[in-house]
Amino acid sequence: MSNPLEDMEKPDVIFCIGTNMTECHPVAATRLKRAIANGAKLITADPRRIALAELADVYLPLRVGSDVSLLLAMAHVIHREGLTNEGFVEGRTTEAEAFLEHIEKFTPEWAETITEVPAADIERAAILYGKAERGAIYYTLGITEHICGVDNVQSLCNLALMTGNIGREGTGVNPMRGQNNIQGAGDAGALPNNYPGFQSVLDPAYQKKFEAVYGRKVDLELGPTKVRALEACGDGIHAMMINGENTVVTDPERHHCEEALKSLDLLVVIDLFLTETAQLADVVFPATAWGETDGVQTNTERRVQRLRKAVEPPGEAMPDWWIVSQIARRMGTPGFGFESAKDVFNELCELSPLYAGLDWDRIDRGEYHWPVPHKDHPGTPILHQGTFENGRGIFKLIRYRDPAEVISDEFPVWLTTGRRLPNYHTRTQTGRAAGIDYLAPGERLEIHPEDVVDWGLEDGGWAKMTSARGCMMVRVEANARSPRGTVFTSFSFNDAPVNVLTGGGYDPVTDTAELKVCPVRVERP
């Protein structure tokens, strides 16, 4: 996030797109509710009529996968109405002239034909955001899990740049992370393109730096993403270690994923429980849970926080860092002589400019947001104040493109997927709590009541849902949260394996799967 969580209470106008925040980030969402109660205006763009839509001053029920067309039209209106922040654009951006010329043709009327949102509502939303003194954007996986996920994010950045809603209190472009330490994992180098601290693996200077630290040379090339690694299983990759992820349930093209993992000579899984993925493993190492572990996590607002062990772990469970270090030592890999989580974190601080001013003791109270470049630095709750790291914000010329797969006579229904409030991710933890089962005993396919009748289904009965990759059975829930022709289900339940169906395409830059758009056929079994 460019701004801290406390800033969620400070905007004049809040633009939420592709985020079901009240269910997926319910604690953070209370801050938005407080802001709205205090007079902030809310724009919500989502295919489903989620709780944020009920709170919105302007609700934009866009067709799944059409975000870029909506954002282009909003940019068009902002510029047409003279709401572009010319001082900010001139002083802090580049490529503005080409961008402003580019958006001239993307009218709200053009966007209406793609998004199915009335042009007048697109104009209302654009003017509301464009006039805001403090406008803030919030998004989650509904923006990124598309073949155009990068385009979606860059389109949001374009809106922030043209209005100057970045680098100030109560503004910003704010992605809400999907799990508790996703930000910290990326900071520590759990990415195919970066060393710790987002230092590019393609830069010879960084290669030299980390060669000296790790005692071995890493090629000047990008590592494989998980998508490409799974494709290479059994043919180039013969061993794999999966740490704290239930890949079989979360990833698209489930049948392909299972076959890929089964083709390995060795699969090692580190996890708290014997998940569906762990059941395929040759070796499973039991890990400690958060309350059994000393460590560090960096949350969605870049706040670096200490974890303190409250209870002793059960049985043979050990911290992830210890398990990985022990494996590395036995493989003869230098540089894994860690004796504590403190050692691991302090090494990160030595290697990452973002953490250079921190150490294990300094983060004792969890008060610092990175970057913290030196020991006397107070941290950076708000990014991009006064300047951008690369000097100027760069406008990107984005064009709309259809999802990888679109509805057809064979698959005439849009399926989109996500999460629900009671269950966290694949229920590895929440699925073991009886109280959660009371709240959500099983998965349901949300279908508009009129579609339920037209398709010969029954509320509470079974439906067969089929895509180009497979089929599944799921119970029906008739409700009007999704528009006609669009259905929704979560990926939480293993006995409702929706990711058997997904996986029609991937973002060409990030290899992120298009989990939010999948044409299907829904019928009586």
Structural class: alpha/beta
Which term fits the overall shape? Answer: globular
Give the proportion of residues in helices: 25-40%
Q: How far apart are the first and last residues' alpha carbons, in Å?
A: 45 Å
| SS elements, strand count | 20
**What does the average pLDDT come to?**
95
Largest sheet report: 6 strands, mixed
Relative strand content: 15-25%
Low-confidence stretches: none
Strand order of the largest sheet: 16-18-17-20-15-19
Radius of gyration: 24 Å
Q: What's the helix count? A: 19
Describe the structure.
This protein has 525 residues and is an alpha/beta fold. The protein contains 19 helices and 20 strands. It has helices at residues 21-24, 26-37, 51-55, 67-80, 86-92, 96-102, 108-115, 119-131, 141-144, 149-163, 182-187, 204-214, 226-231, 247-250, 254-262, 320-330, 341-351, 434-439, 449-454; strands at residues 13-17, 41-45, 58-60, 93-94, 135-139, 172-175, 194-195, 199-200, 239-243, 266-271, 283-286, 295-298, 304-307, 393-394, 413-418, 444-447, 462-466, 471-478, 486-490, 518-523. α4 packs antiparallel against α7 (108-115). The two termini are 45 Å apart. The mean pLDDT is 95.
Q: What are the SSEs and their pairings?
A:
Blueprint: E1 13-17, H1 21-24, H2 26-37, E2 41-45, H3 51-55, E3 58-60, H4 67-80, H5 86-92, E4 93-94, H6 96-102, H7 108-115, H8 119-131, E5 135-139, H9 141-144, H10 149-163, E6 172-175, H11 182-187, E7 194-195, E8 199-200, H12 204-214, H13 226-231, E9 239-243, H14 247-250, H15 254-262, E10 266-271, E11 283-286, E12 295-298, E13 304-307, H16 320-330, H17 341-351, E14 393-394, E15 413-418, H18 434-439, E16 444-447, H19 449-454, E17 462-466, E18 471-478, E19 486-490, E20 518-523
